[in-house]
Each structure stands twice: as structure tokens, then as C-alpha cells.
Design brief:
The protein is an alpha+beta fold and 369 residues long. The chain has helices spanning 9-16, 20-28, 51-62, 67-75, 78-111, 123-133, 189-201, 236-242, 254-263, 316-324, 365-368, and strands spanning 6-8, 36-37, 44-47, 116-122, 148-153, 158-163, 167-173, 183-188, 204-209, 213-218, 223-227, 248-253, 268-274, 277-283, 298-306, 311-315, 330-335, 342-346, 352-356. A twelve-stranded antiparallel β-sheet has the order 8-5-6-7-19-18-17-12-15-14-13-16. Strands 4-9-10-11 form a four-stranded antiparallel β-sheet. A three-stranded antiparallel β-sheet has the order 1-3-2.
């Protein structure tokens, strides 16, 4: 190999972002062996072809990947390498969630007064409600409260609410024991998700409040601590109260609607009502005007419709979770207009309500229909 393609260890370190000591370490463990080693001086030289390999090694170590896993990734093909990295990230997140739970438990035991009883709720019902409602939570790093679960306890109910500003989902549960005093707080959504399995296994779950955390105590004594989020939660009650009356109401079978959404999944979904049907249509990524005789691809679902015909477009990722987590076999959709929220309720059980915001109306709607 010509000398012009070789770099001493100092230059190679600057090119790759690795220190000289790190390069010596990786050479000794066989992860990045120099291209040449002077037999007299011991000076190490690296080739330009090793730069990419060294940069990959540095990036993997920056995400705290252990050496055996780094070796496996560097030796693997693209698909297997991606899988190994995904597995590592999932484990890091799982470990981080466990650390946060243990830290919350430590802080509660050291700095908090004994937890104040908030409510006693049936465990499987609470687990289902958490999963249903949290589909509407967001993941905006600038607004962490949107990733939270609002918990409100009163003498009549325990109400769970989540919103990402485009969806809002709320469900009220009847407590298994009377609630002594009213209480409300926003709990970290990811930590509550981590407690769902324990909730589901317990006949009853006791909810206890402390200053910085909520403790979910199961029937067998297992305890799960979830941090409270300090920022104010959006005024969802005002938003719900300010919604105008629905102009069009649709009652439709949930399972065919889910199937239609899955068959026509895409970035946007159009819902259109006619006298006896709900029409579901996928909006293609590249919009086009339909010519005479063309029929938009989609599904026609039998439905009970009251009110005028109406059309609204939704992001698939907004509409589908709202439908998939609804209760019961029948759904009731309260439509207000192409640019106003739709309310999704179970026709036979009204304790889960989801509000979904449509996207901007389609200016080509008149041409396509």
C-alpha cells in the first residue's frame, strides 16, 4: 500500500474523532487493528479505507453499546446490523425506565410523607383504560406534559385524559371504593405504560399520591411509582365544553370500519357520509383530479346517518388509534364540519370519548366527488 494512503495514529485520530488511547485500546481488543505497525519503533499507521469503519465504531460506542455487540454489528450485514442496534436501543430505554421507577421509589421513601389514598380501581379495567387513553398522548420534547396521563379523582369517578393537541381521549372509571377527597395530577405516560402489566394482574389497584409521584399498589403488594409532571395540563374540559353541536351523527359497525382503514391506510383518510353509508377513502400521496367515470378507491360501509352529508380528512395516525381503542362493537361519530373535531364514542358505552382533529379541507373535494 503506498505511503500516501497511510496515516499516523495522531492524524487518524483527528479524522475519526477517536483518541489515540482509544485507538490503541481497540487495536489490542481486535476491533480496529492498524494497517501497519513499524516492527522497530512500534508506530501504528492506518489506511484511509479504515476511516469509515472507525467512525462506525465511534458512533456505536457513543450509544453505550458494549464491545461484543459492537463487534457483532460491524461484522453483520445492513439488515442484521439495524436489528442489533434496535435491540440495543430498546434495552437502553427499558433500563432507563427501570432506573426512573427506582429513583421515584427512592425519592418517595426518603423525602415524602406516606402516600395519600386517592382511589381504588379494578386492575384490569384500569389497565385497559390507560392503554386506550394514552394512544392520544404526544411525544413533543418541548412540551413533555403532552406525553402525560391526567388523572382526576372525585367522589363519582376516576377520569383519565391524554392529548397531543390533535387528539384528545378521556375515560371515566367507577371506583371500587368511594373516593374520600378530590385529587388531580398529571403522571408520566411512559412510566404508567410500564405499570400496565402489573395492573392487569391485580383484582384491585390502590392509587396513592405523594408530592412528586403516584404509587400504584397491587393486591399482592407490588408497588409501581410513576413521576408527576409539573407543567399545567391543557384545559381539556373547556375544550370539550366549547365544541359546537354535531351536525351529522353516524352509527357504524367498528370492525368493518377498522378493516376499511387498514385496507386503505395512508397519510390521509377521507370520511364521507351519505344517507345510509359511511365512505372511507385513502387520499393518495400524489393528488390528482379524477376523470369522468373514475371511482375513488375506498369502502362503503352501511351506517345510520342523521344530518346533512359531510366530508372530512384525517391523518391515518390520528384516526386509526381513536377507532381501534374504542369500546364495544358499534361506534358513534359526531361530525361537525370539515375543519372541526369529530367525537368518537361507543354507541353502547359512553365512558370513553375520543376527539380527533381533521386536517385542512381538500380543495379538490368538489372535483373528486
Amino acid at each position: 500500500m503506498p505511503n500516501s494512503e497511510m496515516m499516523p495514529i495522531g492524524l487518524f485520530a483527528r479524522r475519526t474523532g477517536l483518541t489515540a488511547s482509544a485507538l490503541r485500546f481497540y487495536a489490542d481488543c481486535g476491533l480496529l487493528v492498524p494497517a501497519e505497525v513499524d516492527p522497530v519503533t512500534g508506530y501504528r499507521s492506518y489506511s484511509s479505507e479504515q476511516v469509515a469503519h472507525a467512525c462506525d465504531l465511534r458512533r456505536l460506542r457513543e450509544i453505550a453499546m458494549p464491545l461484543p455487540a459492537v463487534r457483532a454489528v460491524l461484522d453483520a450485514g445492513p439488515a442484521e446490523a439495524a436489528r442489533l442496534v434496535d435491540d440495543h436501543v430498546a434495552k437502553v430505554l427499558e433500563d432507563a425506565a427501570a432506573v426512573r421507577r427506582k429513583a421515584a421509589a427512592f425519592m418517595a421513601s426518603r423525602t415524602e410523607a406516606p402516600g395519600r389514598p386517592v382511589a381504588v380501581v379494578r386492575g384490569p379495567v384500569l389497565a385497559d383504560a390507560v392503554e386506550q387513553v394514552l394512544t392520544a398522548a404526544g411525544c413533543d420534547p418541548d412540551l413533555p406534559v403532552l406525553g402525560g396521563l391526567r388523572v382526576e379523582a372525585s367522589c363519582e369517578a376516576v377520569t383519565l385524559t391524554a392529548t397531543d393537541r390533535y387528539r384528545l381521549s378521556t375515560r371515566s372509571l367507577v371506583p371500587a371504593e368511594p373516593v374520600s377527597t378530590a385529587w388531580a395530577a398529571t403522571v408520566d405516560g411512559d412510566e404508567v405504560r410500564g405499570a400496565v402489566a402489573a395492573m392487569r394482574r391485580s383484582v384491585l389497584v390502590r392509587v396513592e399520591a405523594a408530592r412528586h409521584a403516584v404509587r400504584f399498589r397491587t393486591a399482592d403488594g407490588e408497588e409501581r411509582y410513576c413521576r408527576l409532571l409539573p407543567d399545567p395540563f391543557p384545559d381539556h374540559r373547556l375544550m370539550l365544553a366549547s365544541l359546537p353541536e354535531a351536525g351529522t351523527r353516524v352509527t357504524v359497525d367498528r370492525n368493518p370500519l377498522l378493516h376499511a382503514l387498514e385496507q386503505h391506510a395512508g397519510e390521509l383518510i377521507t370520511l364521507r357520509t351519505t344517507r345510509h353509508a359511511l365512505h372511507v377513502r385513502h387520499v393518495p400521496r400524489v393528488p390528482h383530479v379524477l376523470s369522468d367515470g373514475d371511482v375513488p378507491p375506498g369502502a362503503r360501509l352501511p351506517a345510520t346517518v342523521t344530518g346533512p352529508d359531510l366530508q372530512a380528512r384525517f391523518a391515518f395516525t390520528t384516526l386509526y388509534p381513536a377507532i381501534s381503542t374504542a369500546l364495544g362493537p358499534d361506534l358513534m361519530l359526531d361530525l361537525r364540519g370539515p375543519d372541526l373535531p369529530v367525537t368518537i364514542r361507543s354507541a353502547d358505552r359512553g365512558d370513553l370519548i375520543t376527539v380527533a382533529m381533521p386536517t385542512a379541507p381538500d380543495p379538490r373535494a368538489a372535483q373528486n366527488h
